[in-house]
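Handout, section B. The chain below has 328 residues.
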Amino acid sequence: MKFLKKFKFLFFVIIGILIFLWVYEFFAGPQSIEIITKNYDKLYFLILAHILTLCLDSLSWYILAGNKKLSIIWAFLITWISQAAGKFFPTGNITGEFVRAYLGIKRGLNTVQSSSTVFADLVIATYALLIIATFSFFIIISNNLNFFSLENSFFFYASLLFFLVSCLIIFFLVRKRFISFFLKKIPTFFKFSLKKKTVITLIKIDFYLFKLSKEKNKVLKALIFRLIGWLSGAFEIYVFLWIIGIEANYLDLVILESFTSLIKAFAFFIPGGLGIQELAFVMIGDFVGLSGPISFSIAIGRRIREILIGLPAVAVWMILFNRKSQSN
């Protein structure tokens, strides 16, 4: 089983590398690298720009948790660490969310509250991305009807449809308390049973999610922060283009950020979206009028930012939480 998991991980990594190399060769990768190296001394601005996005993402979770044990600072640190884990470890964002729930428990939240709020925040972030991407879709087709061509935009259509269906299904399952329903049906359809402690925890999570879905004010606030967070991602691209001396329409960058994030999330099985993120930037960049080398340089700049932000986050994880475990 472990061999199969390692093989699957390695297989998807290789696919990602091949896609990355193809994009690098086909879209003037050396020219993109040259653009970045000429402006390497200003890349620290990418870190400053990303801090805003991290703050907004952290505030969303902080609002949903509503627990004094999780301060804004700790919500920021844990979100920072979990997003880094999602970039450097297998299965991408899924790994990051497990890390966030785990560190939330380490910080003092109970298992039910940490798991439920992390899942709820992930769902809200997905809804926010769907809203931004749908808005971007209507903006771009109003200016370029060629986007309706299935040949040019298949990945976007597939991603948008996938997220739309996923959001509807998740909403239905939470409101109908599907976990409790499923637990009741296990003895009927399956020849195994869960431990009593596990069943109780799952039922509590199910009820917590249902209860949270009724708190419209809290959910709306979290959604607003997530929406602004996605817009902040476009601001990061704006900062990068400013670094390399390119002027761009901010609305075009919102389209670029949302479509790229949508496609990358759809291909979640590729670790870190390797190759997929680069291909998406180039594909969507072409629609908003950016050349291949510029679009690819944006993608490389995003990777550089992930490393500059991610490596310190892993170090903070090891220092803060290992020390906390030893003191306990």
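Note. The mean pLDDT is 82. Compare this with the example in section A.
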